[in-house]
Design a protein that fits this description.
Layout (H helix, E strand, L loop, with lengths): L2 H49 L1 H4 L1 H4 L7 E3 L3 E2 L4 E6 L2 E6 L19 E7 L1 H4 L8 H12 L5 E5 L7 H6 L1 H6 L4 E5 L2 H15 L1 H6 L3 H6 L8 H20 L4 E4 L11 H14 L8 H22 L3 E2 L1 H4 L14 H20 L2 H9 L7
Parallel strand pairs: 5-6, 5-7, 7-8, 8-9
Antiparallel strand pairs: 1-2, 3-4
Helix pairs in contact: 1-12, 5-15, 8-11, 11-13
């Protein structure tokens, strides 16, 4: 090899080395910058939690406090009670003798009673008081719509429960003789089921995504989650079939989250950090990623309900104002009231089709107002 060729080769190798070294330095700088940005999100979330009484007391609002459980994340202790005042807000959680955050109810069901049962996770059981959960608010709104109709809405929500949890317990739910079942799933299935199974199927990507820079440069291909999100809709389909066999309509809601285009400032940073909790089975650090997963879930929800003619409510289209949320999925008291409003029209239509309503309507001297 000539001296000239050796010099040329050395210059090429030096150039490659410098390019590699520059790439490494830029990558390290980018990783450091993103971690500093994440630290800013952590601090913003801490400030938000310190000033937002509902998030600061999320375990009370969303009924996850340790003292309430017989078996944590499975079953509440019958008769358990929590009563605390923080930041001028009073949080009162009371479990009935069956271990649910609802009023006492009779089994067998009283003659003529129209009974609606709401199942779900913390977004179903949440509220400052028992009367401020969405099922309790839904009951009040239905009674105002149908004055005099013997009607009740039972809140059987259990914090962290998935669709699998409720499918396994349908026998118990049916034993309470519902005329209508309302289900509001989403966050727990995505977090503790879909992302867990996706992580098991893609361990290499999970390791790569420990780098914030890799996450930023190579966003999660959300469509790859479809087979794992579909597991939820398989369970919803089985639940719907079991209910149809008993002549019980089961109304399902899509899942609401704050509109990412309308989140700003410290609340957006808070969402970025809070999203880490919900995506910790497959580590991600961006609310934009979480929002894209929820958006895909809702697209599949619409496809599923239309294909199989499942009664449903597109909650995500009616409830996306960031001001109504305390984190990526849980609602303020006003938001909980809006959730009850979202379900009200469709539940009212299903009530009108129940035997109890038809008997009651025939007994009225004047047809009830619609």
């Amino acid at each position: 090899m000539s001296a000239r060729l050796r010099r040329l080769l050395l210059r090429m190798l030096a150039g490659v080395w410098l390019a590699f070294a520059a790439t490494v330095v830029l990558a390290l700088a980018g990783e450091l910058w993103l971690r500093m940005e994440r630290r800013g999100a952590v601090l913003a979330s801490e400030r938000f939690r310190a000033t937002n009484v509902f998030f600061a007391n999320g375990m009370e609002l969303n009924v996850g406090n340790h003292s309430l459980w017989r078996e944590r994340w499975q079953e509440y202790e019958p008769g358990a009670k929590l009563d605390v005042v923080v930041g001028g807000e009073r949080f009162v959680v009371e479990m009935n003798s069956e271990g649910y955050r609802t009023h006492e109810f009779a089994v067998p069901k009283p003659a003529g009673m129209v009974r609606i049962i709401c199942i779900g996770g913390s977004t179903t059981v949440a509220g400052r008081t028992n009367a401020e959960t969405y099922p309790a608010l839904l009951e009040a709104k239905l009674r105002a719509r149908f004055p005099g109709l013997p009607l009740e809405v039972l809140n059987l929500g259990v914090s962290s429960a998935t669709t699998e949890y409720w499918y396994a317990r349908l026998g118990r739910v049916f034993g309470y003789e519902p005329d209508v079942i309302v289900q509001y799933p989403g966050v727990n299935d995505i977090s503790w089921r879909s992302l867990l199974h996706y992580a098991s199927a893609h361990p290499r990507r999970g390791r790569m995504y420990r780098s914030l820079l890799v996450q930023r440069l190579f966003p999660l291909p959300v469509e790859e989650l479809d087979p794992f999100l579909e597991e939820t809709f398989t369970t919803l389909g089985e639940t719907d079939r079991a209910c149809r066999e008993r002549g019980i309509p089961c109304l399902a809601g899509s899942f609401a989250s704050p509109d990412p285009q309308r989140t700003r400032g410290e609340f957006r940073k808070h969402l970025d950090y809070n999203a880490e909790f919900w995506m910790r089975r497959f580590p991600m650090h961006s609310y934009a990623t979480w929002a894209s997963i929820v958006r895909r879930y809702n697209q599949l929800f619409v496809r599923f309900t239309n294909r199989y003619h499942v009664p449903h409510v597109l909650v995500h289209e009616r409830l996306d104002d960031p001001a109504l949320f305390i984190d990526v999925c849980h609602l303020t008291p006003e938001g909980i009231d809006r959730l009850a409003d979202a379900f009200l029209p469709e539940v009212a239509e299903l009530v009108r089709d129940t035997p109890g309503y038809r008997r009651w309507a025939r007994s009225q001297p004047v047809s009830p107002a619609r």
